[in-house]
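Protocol step 4 of 6: structure prediction from sequence.
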Amino acid sequence: MPEEVDARVDAEVDAVASPRPRLRGVSHQVAFFVSLVLGPVLVVLRRASLRPGDMTVVLGLNALVMLLVRGNLPSLWPLLAYAIVAGIVGDVLLLRLRPAVTRAHAIRIFAAAVPTVFTTGYFLTALGFPGGVWWALPDVTGTIVLTGILGVLLSYLAFPGDR
């Protein structure tokens, strides 16, 4: 009987000390952030087309404001750089794919690629900081894939059905 109690206590201590609960929270924060940025972009795409540079401005300004809120811009400037690179990739995708209401496949590809590039850049940049990424590889890749799937799902909200 005491061995069973010890085993349950050890399991509860491991569950509390495990980074998994924190991981789920951070993963959801990344997904929420992507939806806050990509959602309005898709709504604007539904009404009009974006000009070259718009994605860079949206992602770059968003990252700049987030870094200013943290108050440590000089040490976190690489995070601004990855957001700008993700914005440039988004602009290139806008020019090449020309997503529009009548081009559903282009919209889906754009909506999956931008958050995937953004999240991949985030994790690659985090590797350069002391301590790197403390998540296991499946957690990192799963979060990247999750943001791409979320982008596609958001595209179905902004552009319901293929026309």
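Step 5 (inspection) to follow. Residues 8-23 have pLDDT under 50 and may be disordered.
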